[in-house]
Amino acid sequence: MEIALLKFVHVLAFVFWLGTDLAVWYIGFYAVNRKLSAETRVTVIRILFALDMVPRICMTLMLALGIHLSYRIGYLLVPPWVIYTCYLVCLAWMALVLHLHYGEKAKLQRVLRQFDFGFRLALIGGLSTYAAVSLSGSTAVSADFIAWKLLIFATIIAGSLMVRMKLKPFGPAYANLRAGKPTQVDEDAIEHSIAVTRPWMLVIWVGLLLSAAIGLHLVP
Q1: Distance (Å, rounded) from C-alpha 137 to C-alpha 131?
Q2: Do 141 and 67 contact (CB within 8 A), yes or no?
Q3: CB atoms within 10 A of CB 53
Q4: pLDDT at 103
Q5: Which among 25, 6, 4 has a CA at the least distance from the CA of 14?
Q6: Model-wide pTM > 0.70
Q7: Which of 65, 89, 152, 181 is 20 to 30 A off residue 81, Cα-Cα?
Q8: Over 60: is that where the pLDDT of 220 sits?
Q9: pLDDT digits over 145-163, tens only?
Q10: Whole-number pLDDT of residue 214
């Protein structure tokens, strides 16, 4: 029963992540449509930001769910405290993501944003290293495909960081759009920022689909 429930929640997280990302992709075309009024585009972008929280939350949950499922099936030979710790870390990460979206104190937000960036870099390095060691040596991972899924997840996190970096010019330009006085430079910045994130969103989607294909084919 526990394994079935974990599989169900894991699949739900995948569906909500990928489905909402597709919605964000589609809405992005309206966000850069200069034929629409500034008020309409601001509303569209607010909807985009709200929907984008779903994949961000799903990302924080997927790692813990995947590790727990691997442990219960027998592909991850670790003591139970490792699973509990993983959930605590991922729930703390989710709280951080939510605070970065809803928090209002600018100075604190800057500090937390830098911490979140560093945490994701640490995850990328840690998961990639552990996956590589698991594929070439002996670790708690008893199946190679679990190591590959960890490596894919690290790639997905890297893709999310690239999206964040490419969107840096978007913030000031969006502020001017919201104020009702966007310049040509602002319009170009909004359009370019969204355009250059799309290849990295594709990287995330390919990673999700590949990970799902591996899981469906190899997990009993």
Answers
A1: 10
A2: no
A3: 15
A4: 78
A5: 6
A6: yes
A7: 152
A8: no
A9: 889 999 999 999 999 999 9
A10: 87
